[in-house]
Amino acid sequence: MTEASGARGRRRIQVLGRQWCHLCHDMEVALRPIAAEFGLDLETVDVDMDPELEARWDEWVPVLLVDGEYVCHYHLDEIRLRALLISFPVHSGR
Q1: Range of 23's domain?
Q2: pLDDT band at 44, cuts 50/70/90?
């Protein structure tokens, strides 16, 4: 388990974006059903609120990260995301 997935054993999806970015909103909307399907936490991070994130990802937003690892940017690559989620399932320890 990565540090980003936390002690709970749940994977985390992050969208790095901006409040005024329509592509960011589109990616979030597309991710909601996938996050629910896989039982994932979905977090939106405004890069304009963090100078380090803004410096790193500025013109690339929206950026999709799973457990801190880059997946795609600008538009959701659902095929790549699903392949990643299916390849590396997280077990709850039951």
Answers
A1: 10-87
A2: very high
The terminus-to-terminus CA distance of the chain in angstroms comes to 15
Residue 1 inside a domain? The answer is: no
Query: What are the tokens at 41?
Result: 């936490």
Question: Among residues of the chain, what percentage have pLDDT more than 70?
Answer: 84
d(CA 70, CA 72): 6
Q: At what angle do helices 22-38 and 78-87 cross, to 10 degrees?
A: 30
Per-residue pLDDT, 12: 87
5 lies in a domain? Answer: no
> pTM for the full model?
0.82
Number of structural domains found in the chain? 1
Question: Per residue, what are the HEC states of 52-74?
Answer: HHHHHHHHHCCEEEECCEEEEEC
